[in-house]
Amino acid sequence: MNEPTAEGRRLNRSFGWLTLLGALLVIAGVIGLVYTGVATLTSMLLFGWLLLVGGLVGLLHAIESRGTNYFWLGVVVAALNIAAGVVVIKHPEGTAEALTMFAALLFLTGGVFRLVGSVVVRGPQMGWTLLQGAFGLLLGLLVLFDWPHSSLYVLGCFFSLALLFDGLGLIALGIGGRRIVSMVAGRRDGGQPHTGRTSTSPEGKQK
User: Fold this and answer.
1) Which of 26, 40, 47, 171 is most deeply buried (CB count within 10 A of its CB)?
2) H helices within 146-202, ranges in order?
3) Global pTM value
4) Within its chain, how far is the Cα of 197 from the centroid?
5) What's the CA angle centered on 111, arms 108 and 114, to 5 degrees?
6) DSSP-assigned letter for residue 91
7) Please, which residues bridge with residue 200 across strands?
8) What is the C-alpha to C-alpha distance for residues 97 and 102, in angstroms, rounded to an integer?
9) Residue 177 near residue 20 (C-beta atoms within 8 A)
10) 72-111 burial string, b = 16+ CB within 10 Å, else e?
11) Residue 200 phi/psi, 5° resolution?
12) pLDDT, tens digit, 9 for 90 and up, residues 155-176
């Protein structure tokens, strides 16, 4: 019984860390929704550093694989990532404005295509597709009409919502995992979760 108990404790500890990480992400997401401007700049800086580090790693990988047919392609892609990362880190506000404009255009085109496609196809999900298209079109127009001021909160809002929902998912996974481990441990102990009470016979004698 010692090995399953030790394994259960290890799993409980792991799921506990997942729950803690989820709670931290939820807190970060809520703070980001309150301070969307800070969240936007933070997301841009993280994006820039990811591009820069990814470009450096890609460049090292390309140097290690020199002599192959894909050497120069790897060098060019890595150089582009490094250059893009440096630009994003040095100009996070301008990058946020450009990405916000790009997101607004994506919302607009996606909404128009959904509206037109739902009217032309007239499938069983026509009403839902129309609603999605109208929502995307309206969101794109709102972001576009308030640009460039919308770049101060749109990306930060999306980034914070992603943190919030990821955190909630990790919390649910951690709590659910701990419950499953407890159920399995209870079945191994005798078919029922351990309650800490001593079982007695109908005559009142201890077993």
Assistant:
1) 40
2) 154-190
3) 0.64
4) 43
5) 150
6) -
7) 206
8) 9
9) no
10) eebeebbeebbebbeebbeebeebbbebbbebbeebbebb
11) -125, 155
12) 888 888 888 898 888 888 888 8
Query: Are 204 and 41 within 8 A, CB to CB?
Result: no
Structure tokens at 20: 């803690």
Is 157 within 8 Å of 168 (Cβ atoms)? no
State whether the Cα torsion 138-140-141-146 is positive or negative.
positive
Q: In 10 A of CB 207, how many CB atoms?
A: 6
- Tens digits of per-residue pLDDT, 94-123? 888 888 888 888 888 888 888 887 777 776
Amino acid letter at 173?
Answer: L
To the nearest 10 degrees (0 to 180), the angle between helices 154-190 and 2-34 is 160
Side chain identity, residue 70: Y
Q: Which helix (H) or strand (E) holds 34?
A: helix 2-34
Q: Which of 81, 33, 38 is nearest to 61 (CA)?
A: 81
Where residue 186 falls among pLDDT bands split at 50, 70, 90? low
